[in-house]
Amino acid sequence: MVVTIEKLKVAYFPVPKAANTSMKHLLHGIKTGKRFTTTTDQATGAVRHIHREYRTPKFSSIKSEDYRGFFKIAIVRDPVERVVSAWRNRVMHHKELEDGSTAEKIHHVGLPQKPTLPQFVEYLEEYRAVNKSIAVHTAPLVDFLGPSRNYYDLIFDISESRQIEVFFSTLTGEDRKLPVKQIGGPPANRDQLSDELVQKLEGTYKDDYRLFGDVFGRQTDLQLIAKRAKRHKASLNGFLARLKSRLLK
Fold first, then answer.
1. Which contiguous run of DSSP H or E holds residue 26?
2. Are 2 and 67 in contact (CB under 8 A)?
């Protein structure tokens, strides 16, 4: 199930490495009125973190009709930038290629265990094959958002944090801030990749570029975002009024 706020009739379709963690924290605050806190069960050692509370399903696993009547939102990111972010955060910061079972697989196939960014991109398919988390965090946008952008009411680029804040501030009538999460790792950017490696990624994620290419790096007018939020809020108020009228009959 995607992240929903029933009282606002908003559904957020999460994508790894596209403000996923930040959005879940923001929506949890709106939904519960409380800040989410990661906890550890003292008896079992199980960690309750934000991604256990709110999953990130593949589009193929959900029933799209379940979200009829919801204002559907997604956040996208240029695929090259997503892969760079995955290397920074998942490989270098969280060291996901260095745990026991993954390290053994990497050694067996002869891959660098601590790849440079160019090495990671060059052997991306091989790294995805030996580690589930790497595979998830570098899966195409379309795996999570489906084959049609027309399904969504509003699609943000990851750089549009202010637009996201304006939308939810307008919708809720309270000042909302998108927290900054999962930024650990060394500095890195696409300039460290050769033209050949960039072209490789553009080919790998060609469906993402075809569907969302005009959204990457876009900055939507803030007044337009506020207007969309007001329009949805008005329709929501109308829905609640009709529901109350039915209940009183």
1. helix 20-32
2. yes
Cβ-based neighbours of 185, under 8 Å, separated by 6 or more? 87, 88, 89, 91, 92, 93
Residue range 123-154, pLDDT digits in tens: 999 999 999 999 999 999 999 999 999 999 99
Whole-model pTM: value is 0.91
Query: Which domain covers residue 189, as residue numbers?
Result: 3-248
Residue type, 73: I
Phi, psi of 115 (to 5 degrees): -70, 145
Instruction: Name all contacts of 231-239 with Cβ < 8 Å and 24+ positions apart.
Output: 232/9, 232/10, 232/71, 232/153, 232/171, 233/170, 233/171, 236/8, 236/9, 239/9
Which secondary structure element, helix H or strand E, spans residue 47, and what is its range?
strand 47-48
Query: In total, how many domains does the chain have?
Result: 1
CB atoms within 10 A of CB 38: 10
What single DSSP character describes residue 154? E
